[in-house]
Specification:
The structure is a homodimer of 407-residue chains. Chain A has 407 residues and is of the alpha/beta class. Chain A folds into three domains: 68 residues, Arc Repressor Mutant, subunit A; 126 residues, ATPase, nucleotide binding domain (Nucleotidyltransferase, domain 5); 172 residues, Nucleotidyltransferase, domain 5, CATH 3.30.420.40. Helices cover 41% and strands 21% of the residues of chain A. The first copy, chain A, is built from 15 helices and 15 strands. Chain A has a five-stranded mixed sheet, sandwiched between helices. A five-stranded mixed sheet of chain A has the order 13-12-11-14-15, sandwiched between helices. In chain A, strand 11 and strand 12 form a beta hairpin. Chains A and B meet through helix 1, strand 13 and helix 12 of A and helix 1, strand 13 and helix 12 of B. Chain A binds a DNA duplex (30 and 30 nucleotides) through helix 1, helix 2 and helix 3.
Amino acid sequence: MRTINPRDFNRATRSTSRQINRLILLNLVREFQPISRADLARRMAVGRGMVTTLVKELLAEGAVYEGALTDVPRGRRPKMLHVQTRDRLVVAIDIRFSRTYLLLSDFGGNQLALESFGTVFDPGQLLDELAMRVRRLLRTHAAGAHCEGIGIVIPGMVDRRSGRVFNAPQLGWRDVQVRSGLVERTGLPVHIENSGAACALAHLWLGPGERRSGIRDFVYVTVSDGVGTGVVVNGEVVRGHGHTAGEFGHIPIGPDGPRCLCGAQGCLEAHTSNLATVARYLGYDFSPAVARELLQQSSVTVDDVIRRAGGGDERARAALLETGRYLGFGFSVMVNALNPAQIIIGGEITAAWNLIEAPIRAEIGRRALTRRAAETPVVPAPGGGLPRLRGAIALVAAPAFAAPQVG
Amino acid sequence: MRTINPRDFNRATRSTSRQINRLILLNLVREFQPISRADLARRMAVGRGMVTTLVKELLAEGAVYEGALTDVPRGRRPKMLHVQTRDRLVVAIDIRFSRTYLLLSDFGGNQLALESFGTVFDPGQLLDELAMRVRRLLRTHAAGAHCEGIGIVIPGMVDRRSGRVFNAPQLGWRDVQVRSGLVERTGLPVHIENSGAACALAHLWLGPGERRSGIRDFVYVTVSDGVGTGVVVNGEVVRGHGHTAGEFGHIPIGPDGPRCLCGAQGCLEAHTSNLATVARYLGYDFSPAVARELLQQSSVTVDDVIRRAGGGDERARAALLETGRYLGFGFSVMVNALNPAQIIIGGEITAAWNLIEAPIRAEIGRRALTRRAAETPVVPAPGGGLPRLRGAIALVAAPAFAAPQVG
DNA sequence: GGGACTTAGTTCGAGAGACGAACAAGACAG
DNA sequence: CTGTCTTGTTCGTCTCTCGAACTAAGTCCC
């Protein structure tokens, strides 16, 4: 049940009904492809005539294509429909502290080409480099196919509407216009988003239909050098009033505790990030100074800690168990606050899933209000890797399938 | 940007466009009443002809009515339109541990009659009593006006769709079908909701337009014997996957801390409820046993503590300041997790606003990630009182104005 | 006071699109 | 070849948007 904002609404025009039905039809094709016109008519509960005209439009636009005829027990053989993914390309860009990744992909998420380079921190220079690489990617790999846009994910606060980066501490950016800069350089539509939100977006929009359908509330947690989270509520990504929602990484775990890189004390991130785990293993108290030291001269990584724990190193095991306990503590806040259908956890730490699962579950169980909430599934991020880049793809692909906003 | 669920969608039919535009028009009248047809046409950017036909329909249904002519500097004088609220009644019911309240109100939230009785814990008996009182209220006060339905708010987990109460520990209810029971007894449409969510709903749907418009993300916190919260994200109330979302009262404030009535340790509620404040003032460590004792033989209430703090009692001041500090701590979690446009706080504690505001602000400021987030407004609940009953009214009134779901 | 001008509200015709019925195109059994 | 069944297209009808013409009711100016 949503309000109609009387100062900013979308009125229905002559073509609104058609737009709605066209999008529903497109989504049905996407979900049930290959599918015949007659089947679509049955699923939509409309006459086959309407399906004919709608499909004709979608065919003309290249949104769907006709496949082979299928064998049926009786009657005329139907011509099956599919959504067009191969000829519609997306350039996904993931800007991180150490490196920047570019992925050329089609609408279905199939990877065509992946490359990376050391991140340049000057925005203008970085955009120049990106534009050059985008052009090169399209020249060499996109044989005639159309590029629908560029999706960029950034570790920081982003205004999706205006295309500006408010604040990205890792990159040292403040109030940087990314979108218009890249639009000017490439002439392509550009979408930007925070990397945590983008991971959630990818989970919501890409991947198999069974996973997508039905789940309207979840939290996607990425544990790496920091702890990023993307929150989906009522089937929509939560961005918040000032574009800083979903920062569960910086909820306090207690009034005291280690000082976090963000300046506050006792943040979840300061207890559970890869750096925090490594610091714990090495016997240091976590602090911004320790974190910076670990980042620069990283003799030991989390991967090392996980390997050693597997090899029987008791101190490594203890450090990981402690990380699991704190993660569970943070997850219990999510469970009580949002009651998500599931919590998805990604990052290197999932390699130690057999170790951390138990303390996570125990902590949630201890603090959840109902039995059902206590059993909230916590699942390692489904495979395929590159969740951030998948999020960048979703940024471009999702609007083509999203429900129109009316009212 | 929301997904279309290919297994459960709303197709556009011939009448969909009209339904959408009718609702927009109704909302415009609600927001800007009194308003003329010509003004409506300008605001909707349609011809006056369409407004004429839509208004004719709404007049016939009794959703709006024509008022007086207005003076204008030039031209024909317009006939002003208003939404019909006086002839459309709602019975709002608030079931609480100690007493149950019934309010007869119109669609505009104007109170016509208020009564209460000691809560009966047997669901069947309570429904009988309620049905009797609803009938009596309508007989004596509703002179011919139509009752649009009954709204019930309950301190517990509720499934709004099925009308069931999953679990209401205060009432000792588990899996109680409230809606169908009351529908059978009264023949009226019945809506039920958790009381925290209902308070948020009232804030979202009732009250002056300036407050409503634009604010799509907020948290409504009620501090009484417990701490209840209603969360609104993207303009919709958050219910969660298992109907237990919005329980910020039971997020942990630290790994240790006082045991809460819910069974967990260190919940926000165990630090900041009225009972916790009183216990702190009296020098007790909070525990379920202490809470029950305070509930039964309450020699001192929060109101007393606030009065004494006002009178110069240093221990009372200290207890309230501490409560404020913990509240701020809890609010900082909301700010980082959801980045709401504002946090609304209700309950007796707001009488000590001059005391608790500073520690609340300080704690949020210390932990928020951005300056804007640090300045998230925390406002005492706007007057009018009876937020729960207003929520019950909103349960019935809101659907009449809600945007239709398409896609 | 009467015409010119303005604004509000209604009526009407054209065009877009949902919707249902009829029809053409395959496929198969007898 | 004929009857039956299913898919896909075409076409007329009905609903609804949308703009233009028209009526109603004011003010302003000469």
